Every structure is written in structure tokens, then in C-alpha cells.
Amino acid sequence: MRLTLKIWRQADSSSTGAMHTYELDDVSPDMSFLEMLDVLNERLNDQGEEPIAFDSDCREGICGMCGLMINGQAHGPEVTTTCQLHMRSFSDGDTITVEPWRADPFPVLKDLVVDRSAFDRIIQAGGFISVNTGSAPDAEAILVPKPDADRAFSMAMCIGCGACVAACPNGSASLFLGAKVTHLGMLPQGQPERDERVTDMIAQHDHEGFGGCTNIGECTAACPKEIPLDAINQLNRDLRHSFMHGH
Predict the structure, then answer these.
(1) Single residue among 110, 141, 168 that ends a domain in this structure
(2) What's the CA gap between 80 and 224, in Å, rounded?
(3) What are phi and psi of 21, to 5 degrees?
(4) Cβ-count burial of 102 within 10 angstroms (0-12 exposed, 13-18 middle, 19+ buried)?
(5) Of 81, 110, 139, which residue is a domain's last?
(6) Could you read off the pLDDT of 194-227 as tens digits, one per residue?
(7) Same-domain status, 125 and 98
């Protein structure tokens, strides 16, 4: 495959970026998108040019590091992570535009790399449970109804990649926030701090500059782990509950 790549280049967070165009021949349909960028970077290295900076780690669709806007879509044309997107999703002769996540709380650090530490600070605000350390309890010591366990597990699938924010016209992180709040809220261990958790995490979400949710649904459409939109419903219910209890 022969491809034309239009890629955002930005030296650092204080520099003005711009799109640069590259031509790449002999792209295998079996390459992942990141492998294709690796090939381009090898060529740039050989030519004495600065390689394109992009985030990756596991390359197995688990860590959430590899998010890119590809032709205006978070993670590209398939509902998957960028590292699991393969070049067979494109055609010979295509022009592909590659940009970093576009959201104020995710400032560009270099090229396609953004700072997603805002998500870390939201988790630090309340996305945890406080328990006494010691020996592990028996697995059956705390009974959890299967529907609750299944829902908690489905929400725990969120990998914090930020596709929901990048896809949302409002730049909202409500799907991420809803997944984290619901994951812990469905379990007995999450109950003591449930009201405080939702108010603290929402306050941090707003402080970071994420937008509000208007139920457009682009977030769940782009989510590689298919977190359902009703995670946001649970978030709103928990928030109302916390207000009723004076939090």
C-alpha cells in the first residue's frame, strides 16, 4: 500500500504546531497503525530527521496509552485502540490525517503525545477505597450479587485512554468518570465513601477544565472497551444521592 500521511508535529508544549506531509510506500495491510508509524520513524531516522513522538506501551489494547485522532476519529475507523487498528482498515492511495487528542485538559507535550495526568488527578480525588491492610479476606467473605459483580466488571474495563474526551464535542470526561464511580459503587467495599467519592471526583473533573455532558453519545461510540452510556446515568444518580445526604 502507498499512503500519504498528514501528521501533527509540535516541538514542545510552548511551540506552535503544524501538519507535515509524508509519503510512505510498501505498507503491509497486516501492520498495526503503530507499526506503520515505526516504519516511518525508521525512515526519518535514516534521513537524519526527528522521529515522530507518539505514546505506546503494551500494544495489546490494555494500557490506554496509544490514543490518536485518525481522520478525525478517536482511535480511527474501528472501535478499538490505536495499537490494535490494522492498516487493512485503509486502502491503497489513502490520505490519512493523524493528530493528538484535542482537548484543553490534555495539553500536547510533543507531536502526538499529550499529558493525560488530569485523569490521574481525578482518580486521586476519590477513585479508590480505603481499607485496612492485612491478610486477604476469603473470597466468599463478602457476597456480591452476580448482576452487581458483572456491572462492576464491565465498568472496570475502562483503560483511561481518553477517547471519550477526544470524541466528545464538549470535551467531557463523563464516561470515564461514570465508569470509575460505577465500578466502585456497585461493590460493598465502595459504599462507605460513595457519596464523598462522586462529589470529589466531579469537582476535580470540572477543575481540570473538562466540559459538561449533553448526552450526545460520541463517547461510548468511540470507546474501545464499549463502556455503556448508562454509566453517566449512574454518575448522575450517585450525585443526586450525595446531595440528598448533604455532601
Answers:
(1) 110
(2) 4
(3) -105, 135
(4) middle
(5) 110
(6) 999 999 999 999 999 999 999 999 999 999 999 9
(7) no
- The reply to whether 92 and 210 lie within a common domain is no
pLDDT class for 228, splitting at 50, 70, 90? very high
Spatial CA neighbour of 52 closest among 42, 41, 43, 68: 41
Orientation angle between helical segments 230-244 and 194-207, nearest 10 degrees: 110
CA–CA dist 96, 93 (Å, integer): 10
CB burial of residue 9 (10 Å; 0-12, 13-18, 19+)? middle
Binned at pLDDT 50, 70 and 90, residue 246 comes out as low
The set of cell numbers assigned to 174 is 463523563
CA dihedral (214, 218, 221, 224) in degrees, to 10, reads -100
The stretch 131-143 carries a mean pLDDT of 77
- Give residue 247's pLDDT: 56
Q: How far is CA 55 from CA 5, 38, 65, 67, 82, in A?
A: 18, 12, 6, 8, 10
When pLDDT is averaged across residues 124-147 and rounded to a whole number, the result is 84
